[in-house]
Design goal:
Blueprint (H helix, E strand, L loop, with lengths): L2 H12 L2 H6 L20 H10 L2 H6 L1 H15 L4 E2 L6 H8 L1 E4 L3 E4 L6 H5 L11 H13 L6 E6 L1 H10 L7 H9 L1 H25 L3 E6 L7 H22 L5 E5 L6 H5 L5 E4 L5 H8 L4 E6 L8 H15 L5 E5 L9 H16 L7
Parallel strand pairs: 1-4, 4-5, 5-6, 6-7, 7-8, 8-9
Antiparallel strand pairs: 2-3
Helix pairs in contact: 3-5, 5-8, 9-10, 9-11, 10-11, 11-12, 15-16
């Protein structure tokens, strides 16, 4: 594709349902994509994963990452695609040595325990140390339908920090929370360092072809309000503001799971949209943030493990709850789970499409 064609395609994507919804502009029907839409619920994903041999090889091989990114687009025709990668790539290239243990999830060979561990963290060059990610973005952009926007993403500084301190996942992230309390200066340094590195990483994704960006704050909800503002919100706000200064036309979605108490503060970061989990109604979120941001969400993922009738009603209820007017991107309240039958996603997509095309009427 020559430069003129590439520019034209970018402009067309800016007018897509997904991008218009993020700008709170009118659309013909509610756009839909799903968090973790490329994943283990799809047989084609499992086949590619088996071919790769392990998760890091899958995520770190541009051709394979492109293949699994495209699979849900080819099957369901979602209104947006999201890069297949992992939020822990950055600490991995900082030397913490990431691995994935079956049944246990991510593990780091090295962890953050002392202030010196933070001071010794390198600043990776995203076009060098994470070059495979950028090559995947470039390849996906080439292979995606020209009109389909591509979402780049990263983990929030706090969420990434939890894994770096704990050495893996945790039920309550007590070690990470204790680090904030006992080593607040080192913790702030860690969050600031991760914010700078994440900003560079996301800017590189934009330069490589991403049309929109998303920050996942999976574990902000484990923090007290004061700790959330100091160690989670501030890091995300720094990332949003720096990227917006350089790319005001690139929308940023913040998804902070379990953080309904902080919706107003999250909307004030300067982001264009907030992801909402299923513990908050869209109508309440909309009332609280007004017209400052679009909303994305928020179907409980377990609905997709039920029946077609339950899915149809739950989707209709979600759309009814948002109500009339622009600014809604349909999604789940968290990632799709491996036990979801692929045909249930067909029901989900069809119900969203039909609701907005007039084949379904709002429930009363």
């Amino acid at each position: 594709m020559n430069e003129s064609s590439s520019t034209s395609a970018r402009m067309n994507r800016r007018e897509s349902r997904f991008m218009r919804a993020l700008r709170r502009e009118p659309v013909d029907q509610t756009p839909i994509w799903l968090m973790r839409q490329a994943g283990r619920y799809l047989p084609e994903y499992r086949a590619t994963r088996a071919k790769a041999g392990d998760f890091l090889t899958l995520a770190g091989t541009p051709e394979l990452a492109c293949e699994v990114t495209l699979q849900p687009i080819q099957r369901y025709g979602f209104d947006a695609s999201i890069l297949f990668s992992d939020i822990l790539i950055l600490p991995h290239v900082m030397g913490l040595e990431l691995s994935f243990t079956p049944g246990e999830g991510p593990k780091f060979a090295r962890t953050i325990r002392h202030p010196d561990d933070v001071r010794n963290l390198p600043t990776p060059d995203p076009m060098n140390e994470t070059r495979a990610v950028m090559q995947a973005v470039e390849l996906i952009r080439q292979e995606l339908p020209a009109e389909t926007p591509l979402i780049g993403f990263a983990g929030s500084p706090w969420t990434v920090a939890t894994y770096m301190i704990e050495g893996g996942s945790s039920k309550d992230f007590a070690k990470a929370r204790r680090f904030l309390l006992q080593q607040p200066e080192a913790a702030e340094h860690l969050i600031q360092h991760l914010a700078r590195c994440t900003t560079d990483y996301l800017l590189a994704q934009v330069a490589s072809g991403a049309d929109a960006l998303m920050l996942f704050d999976s574990w902000g909800g484990v923090l007290s309000p004061s700790l959330f503002h100091r160690f989670s919100l501030n890091g995300m706000k720094s990332i949003v503001q720096t990227i917006q200064q350089q790319h005001p036309d690139v929308p940023i979605i913040l998804f902070a799971k379990g953080c309904a108490f902080h919706l107003e503060a999250l909307a004030d970061t300067g982001c264009q949209a907030l992801g909402i989990d299923w513990t908050t109604t869209l109508s309440d979120a909309r009332r609280r943030v007004g017209d400052r941001v679009a909303l994305q969400g928020n179907l409980d993922p377990v609905v997709l493990t039920s029946s077609a009738a339950v899915i149809e009603q739950a989707v209709q209820d979600t759309l009814d709850d948002y109500g009339e007017g622009p600014g809604h991107v349909f999604n789940l309240g968290h990632g799709i789970t491996p036990d979801v039958p692929p045909e249930h996603v067909d029901v989900l997509v069809e119900t969203v499409r039909n609701y907005r095309s007039g084949k379904l009427t709002p429930s009363t």
